Amino acid sequence: xxxxxxxxxxxxxxxxxxxxxxxxxxxxxxxxxxxxxxxxxxxxxxxxxxxxxxxxxxxxxxxxxxxxxxxxxxxxxxxxxxxxxxxxxxxxxxxxxxxxxxxxxxxxxxxxxxxxxxxxxxxxxxxxxxxxxxxxxxxxxxxxxxxxxxxxxxxxxxxxxxxxxxxxxxxxxxxxxxxxxxxxxxxxxxxxxxxxxxxxxxxxxxxxxxxxxxxxxxxxxxxxxxxxxxxxxxxxxxxxxxxxxxxxxxxxxxxxxxxxxxxxxxxxxxxxxxxxxxxxxxxxxxxxxxxxxxxxxxxxxxxxxxxxxxxxxx
Length: 314
Prior knowledge:
By secondary structure, this protein is of the alpha/beta class. It has a single domain (about 15-55, about 65-310), classed as Class I glutamine amidotransferase (GATase) domain (Rossmann fold), CATH 3.40.50. The chain contains 7 helices and 11 strands. It has helices at about 40-45, 80-90, 135-145, 155-165, 185-190, 255-265, 280-310; strands at about 5-10, 50-55, 65-70, 90-95, 120, 150-155, 170-185, 200-210, 220-225, 230-240, 245. α3 (about 135-145) packs across α4 (about 155-165). The radius of gyration is 18 Å and the shape is globular.
């Protein structure tokens, strides 16, 4: 039996949040293409730390439960809270950082599905509709996982990938969400053993595209997005497919991570709308989430723990 260390660059702090009120937006929305966001290298360097995941090949006896962590952008991580929960339960975290491939977004090289017990796919600034080789391969991988009943936890872009893997579609919403939003939990969501953990329906968001509910899936929540023409549109915010869940919001985020994303993704405030001051939005984000952060972390801890229990991965 052999072992090895994989060096992974992970953000200590990454959060994308805005205000409790729904805001207007300008083009391009998040998801319109992976080149739409730039950030300064010094901010990136200040936010990074090095983590060594000790990976040991699975053995017939005493093998650790393996969680595959799919990331599409350096600043979009699983979050310190979720990482602590999984590590505290003895999970082996297997990183799959698509953004590190050369050429970038050209390769997706995860372990065989039989070698992982859980898949968590997180966000990124590109669209699922972008013609990127890594995304095509990831979609096929997720489709096979979902068809095989492998539990998948999809966030933002990861949720959109799940929808398209199951035959759904993703399109520009016509607006832009950046910050805390109220969601409307469906009756199925209220009764769901996992989604029912969300008792205060306010969640952090950052996206410009939305997904349809694929065949065989159950809608758990909806939300309203303010369009550029001033109207509101109802969009899907979460669904369940077997033991897998897709979230068009950011359950993994914490206050400390917000403080870093507030700098790294400062340019995203420009997308909220020309009528709003990026500086004022930044201050409001930090102030409002500071008040809500303890409740958010309590709810999302319960959500992840319920997900693991439902998937029999405790």
